[in-house]
Amino acid sequence: MLKRLLTVTILLAGTTLAAHADAVSDAMADVQKYAGQKTTWDGPTSGPAAAEGKNIVVLAADMKNGGVLGVTNGIQEAAFMIGWNVNVLDGAGSIQSRAAAFGQALALKPDGIIINGFDAVEQKAALDQAKAAGIPMVSWHASPVIGPDPENGIFANVSTDAMEVSAAAAKWAFADAGGKPGVVIFTDSTYAIAIAKADKIKETIEGLGGTVLEYVDTPIADTSTRMPTLTTALLQKYGASWTHALAINDIYFDFMGPSLAAAGIAGDGAPKAVAAGDGSESAYQRIRSSQYQAVTVAEPLNLQGWQLVDELNRAMNGAEWSGYTSPLHVVTKDNISFDGGDKNIFDPGNGYREQYGKIWGKK
């Protein structure tokens, strides 16, 4: 009887171990789908020709944010090809500054406005004014939903699939920890999309059987002052059980390194930093040099700038939005050399510049 019980116990243990191993390998297989080179254009191939000589305003949430900066650079590059004038107004990381910038934009009476990196709900009154004035608007990361947001007067909100980004980041951490991650999640409740992303990270980690040690809500605008002391406090609280730091944006990790180094943690040690967006230049540099960040799930920021210009051109011409969702890319030290990685950006080699130029009649 005892022998039979021991046999059953061993068999059950073996089955559990096998299931655990399968969960880890399945998670990494899902991640690898987003780690390869992007060489094929999967976006629009037709649309209206360029509306000539337009003046547009870009309302940037905070030009210190690498994602916002990258998208702005793409907008300016695309605007040069399509033949538009661009005025960039920096919201400088605060609601008040963004409100002032929006007021300035409305006073300029532009042909179009691009909301770059802040939540539409935050500036609802100004959006309503722009909508009433008949000014076409497109946005980047202004809503958890990709595509049209008619309630806020936004023709199209451009983004990668934020839930896929979050799931990919969480699955990488789960697999890297051998199925036993201890995770701290960083988010900012100022933004609806940030909360949605953080919730997806939490749901994915816990659904796979990992542990979320803490869910930290701290403003992106205050990361430079808050993250050093917060990192030290979390290290003291959780010690070695903290295996991975997951954040909704790379900017959280811009200010963690000195605190980790002061605690005697090596650049490639735990907690490993994994960002569910956006693929900033500083994130690429940290990953390449193994300095306190292992992964970023990057968005094609420059491409998205081009898409915003294309969507705004469609709005000006009375066309439908393109329906395009741009690709995401899991960046690790192993694959950092391609698709723009040598320039510290995710810039797909899929010919998007030529494709948009053809649509606009500029190629």
Question: What does it look like?
Answer:
With 363 residues, the protein is of the alpha/beta class. It contains 11 helices and 12 strands. α5 runs parallel beside α6.
Topology:
Layout: H1 2-32, E1 55-60, H2 66-82, E2 85-90, H3 95-108, E3 112-116, H4 124-132, E4 137-140, E5 147-149, E6 154-158, H5 162-176, E7 182-187, H6 192-208, E8 211-217, H7 223-238, E9 244-247, H8 257-262, E10 272-275, H9 281-288, E11 295-298, H10 301-316, E12 329-331, H11 352-360
Parallel strand pairs: 1-2, 1-3, 3-4, 4-6, 7-8, 7-9, 9-10, 10-11
Antiparallel strand pairs: 5-6, 11-12
**Elements, N to C (H/E):** HEHEHEHEEEHEHEHEHEHEHEH
Mean residue pLDDT: 92
Low-confidence blocks of residues: 11-17
Q: What structural category do the secondary elements indicate?
A: alpha/beta
Cα end-to-end separation: 81 Å
Shape: globular
Main sheet attributes: strand count, strand direction, barrel closure = 6 strands, mixed
State which percent range the strand residues make up: 15-25%
Give the % helix.
40-55%
Arrangement of strands in the largest sheet: 2-1-3-4-6-5
Continuous helix count: 11
Rg calculated over all Cα atoms: 22 Å
How many strands?
12
Organism: Pannonibacter anstelovis
Signal peptide: 1-21
Pfam family, one: Peripla_BP_4
Main location: other
